Amino acid sequence: MYKLGDLKIGMSESYSQTITDADIKGFAGLSGDRNPVHLDEEYASSSRFKKRIAHGMFSASFFSALFGTKLPGEGCVYVSQNLKFRKPVYVGDTVVATIEVKGIDVEKRRVYFNTYCKVGNSKVITGDAEIYVPEG
Fold first, then answer.
1. pLDDT by 10-residue block (mean), the chain, 136 residues
2. What total number of domains does the chain contain?
3. Which residues pair with 88 in a beta bridge?
4. CATH number of 99's domain
């Protein structure tokens, strides 16, 4: 865990996970999003994606894991996050989520991040986040 004064612009952390069928089914159960493009191979084969895709919010949730466990770490709280879903993520893809400090407001105890997920060399999600860092 980092204290606010320890953070510097350019610091970054990453997390990677290979997306499995069980992950997609589990996220559907947790989120209630049972869209057949995620769960039904036959349905998805007639979609523009041609096969099942992972929920975009599943990959985006890796940002939260990074904030809460790595940078800044325990006790921090999301203030905002925006996301652009650029490309689909499929079963078997390895998603690498990265967060990078782009600004720090010491007075308001806010840290601003660039956030993105990549599969291979392609960015599949881009965005930015604002995180509150408590005293301590």
1. 94 98 97 97 96 97 97 96 98 98 97 98 98 90
2. 1
3. none
4. 3.10.129.10
Label residues 73-91 b or e (16+ Cβ within 10 Å = b).
Answer: eeebeeeebebebebbbbb
Is the peptide bond prior to 72 cis by the omega test (within 30 degrees of 0)? yes
Domain limits at 119?
4-132
Widest CA span in the chain: 53
Q: What pLDDT digit, counting tens, does each position of 78-91 carry?
A: 999 999 999 999 99
Taking each helix axis as running N to C, give the angle between helix 56-69 and helix 21-31, from 0 to 180 degrees, rounded to the nearest 10. Answer: 90
pTM (predicted TM-score): 0.95
Provide the residue count of the chain: 136
